[in-house]
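Bench notes, afternoon.
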Amino acid sequence: MKKSIRIAPILIILLSFTFSGFNNLDNEPKAKYVFYFIGDGMGIQQINAAQAFLNANQKSQVNSNLSFTEFPVVGFSTTYAYNRYITGSAAAGTALSTGTKTSINTLGLNHDHTDTLFSIAYYLNKQGFNVGIATSVSIDHATPAAFYAHQPKRNLYHEIAHDMLKSHYRFFAGGGFLDPKGEKSIKPLGDIYSLGSDQGIYYTSSLSATDSIVNLYSTIVYQTPNPATGSALKYQIDNAVGDVALPDITAMGIEVLKNKKGFFFMVEGGKIDWACHDNDAASVVHEVIDFSNAIQVAVDFYKKYPKETLIVITADHETGGMSIGNRKMRYDSDISLLANQKISLEILDQKVQSFFELNPNASYKQIQDFIFSDSIISISSSDLNEEQNKMLKKAFEQTQAAKSSNDKKMVRREYGNHEPIAATAIEILNQMAGIGWSSFSHTASPVPVYALGVGQEKFCGQMDNTDVPKRIASIMGISME
């Protein structure tokens, strides 16, 4: 009896601490508005290059800041997939959305496709939060699809689009769809436009969504009126005045998603990855800057609701093995030279093809002067050194020698599946600027994680990509089970 009397006060103290801890967890501020930005292919190298590019004309050694590089919390995330150390966008997107590793090319399913994985967006939608998914590429591409689709292969674009119809999310935006009618599908499921309209989905190419439209339709799907190749937004380096950019659809999404309960908004900068696959440094920095400008739209929203908003920025993986510094330039670099590139490699490819169609017997000097001109790469061809001229001439000769379609395909593979002389011209400019690349593919480099707002401290330090959605869910007060 005496022992129980002595223990009782200790139990009371321990219980008081325990319940106090639970109360503290319950009383922790919850994020009501969450922005989840994913820079596809964006490692710290791409961010650093964009900062150096912005700073290039300031004649100082201090990097210019992007909208997110001064966020108070910075961490790093590992990116490996279930079955491969160097991941792909589908596996990485699934990890970033569901908190579970899966196999390469898989969307919203476990590694052997025996179980369905549900994303943070799915659980939040069930809890009554408005959910938005936006991207600079097609809406059915791997990263956005990872938040709503469940398919064994990422290239089942028609089936993925039908998963979008089933999600009942509030807002989607991007360049469009890759197979909306099932023309490339073995078993077409029907035109998503007619089926979606019957379900209360409003498809639009206008950035303005009136109150009556927002109130009348359950889901709003925005598609850019002038999509580029791959049903994507244009590369920012190719954008003309009036062309749609990622900040525009981010701002539209906020207008559609705003409500008393709160929202979750995933925004992907998808063409950072594409430009990195092309080893096109000038296009990369323009895409990162556009991504930063979209984040600034969220930061402006945060300033209005600082006690209710969380912004998280990360990447699915790094692409290209980009570096500031290369073997040829060693310790020298001049990132300002990238400003002399006026169009993306994608458009330069098209221009070179058209040039040879119009001038089948063109000389090396003619194509050299065509590319190194004010409208394409505005540096003088006389600035090329002997080795660079040899590189360019070799590419020209290989193009001229490749007569059959098979020959042309073999030659293009050596140049990242681009016109040899176009890819070489971009490679020479990169080299002169001091940019290096180790791959046309993804790498396993850890990627940065930035956070601002409610619960920001949970994103400090080293983590895995599967940790990110779990931490967001915790901060929003929901369970992903």
